[in-house]
Amino acid sequence: MVKHAVEANFDGLVGPTHNYAGLSWGNVASKSNVSSVSNPREAALQGLAKMKRLADRGYVQGILPPHERPHIPTLRALGFEGTDAQVLEQASKSSPSILAAVSSASPMWTANAATVSPSADTSDHRVHFTPANLSAKFHRSIEHTVTGRSLKAIFADESYFAHHPALPSVSHFGDEGAANHTRLCAGYGEPGVELFVYGQIAFNEQAPAPKKYPARQTLEASQAVARLHGLKDRNVVFAQQNPEAIDGGVFHNDVIAVGNGNTLFYHDMAFLDEEQVLADIRERLTGAELEAVRVSSADVPLDDAVASYLFNSQLLNTPDGMLLAVPGECREVASVSRYLDNLVKSGGPITSVEVFDVKQSMRNGGGPACLRLRVVLNDEELRAINRGVLLTDELYERLITWVEAHYRDELSQDELGDPMLLEEVRKALDELTGIMGLGSIYDFQL
Length: 446
Fold this sequence. Notes:
Elements lengths: L4 E8 L15 H5 L7 H17 L4 E4 L7 H6 L6 H11 L1 H7 L11 E4 L9 E5 L6 H4 L2 H11 L6 E3 L17 E4 L8 E6 L20 H10 L7 E5 L2 H5 L9 E4 L2 E5 L6 H11 L6 E5 L6 H7 L5 E5 L2 E7 L6 H12 L4 E7 L2 H4 L9 E7 H6 L8 H14 L12 H18 L10
Parallel strand pairs: 1-2, 4-5, 7-8, 10-11, 13-14
Antiparallel strand pairs: 1-15, 3-4, 6-7, 9-10, 12-13
Helix pairs in contact: 2-15, 4-5, 15-16
């Protein structure tokens, strides 16, 4: 039986240690802003403003909490000893690169938090979650434990929700979560097609692969997640990302394609075999025809798509068609701005464009779509979640006050070893878990 369902967006709340360490090889924006002074307070407020605008439009908007950073347990596991302050001092003096990695606020990009399959697709008719192991980057590979705790605290009822551990943290099963996964459907509550996009086949060295930058998602990881979630062949398409696009800075599929409902909005360099991908989706999609909105390189060169993060936008249903929520940089790149003007006049499924200011996130290589994890929930499932994470006017005001009380307005690499920063972060997160009703999810709370 088809049930009414909504697609909820769970945005990552930017953490107090938001900084520009340039940790992500293959992410052009991340590298180009390395060592700049960041503004964690502004970053968090920009993220909250985006959430509030969408909540005010009637979308179900949830929040995922930031992680504890600097992450002292990781430093201890790497041999740094003594009090927390001594651990920070040792790491700061002898291994500043490691300190920068364990201080990253990268959990803000919750498109990488997990892969989520709605109950309409899964064999046991529960919503399934698998935290991404993010094994391609050290600073992100330490996220999945706390991500899993957060998801279990929010989606706790086992009669509705199933949680899996992250895949083995090795390159053969590199998994980047929903940044390489999208779902197409006639309606959110109906069975859909889950599109898993991978960069390489790990166990086939002869298969096509990028030459300059690493492919972070493997076919084997995508197949494993589909198995764990109980997805049948008719609900799944596996598609290889174009290796040339990866070498051009498209480190995740959500930098070059985004889907919603029966619409796939993508660049002509998104897939290695574009025609086969579209044919596979059309064969499996029931109840609606696929609306393939293809952006040609002639209209938007790949470099412009990457620079503007045109495709790292949110595609949302409205009563009058679909809304494309784009970063402000899309209006600063001439080819992209022209394309967007023509897009809304084209008579296609995307009928409006709105600009969101997430500049602090963009400088680190994450646009509006990076900041959110999509979770399709039917009415019963929505009632079963921890309501303390859903954005209301009251929660928004409390979080604004919380950010302004706890976040610095400037943060440089040299300050990451400051014991006061760690104390500030822990005090803030302890208060936040109380505000959101999450219980003890951080190592320092356990």
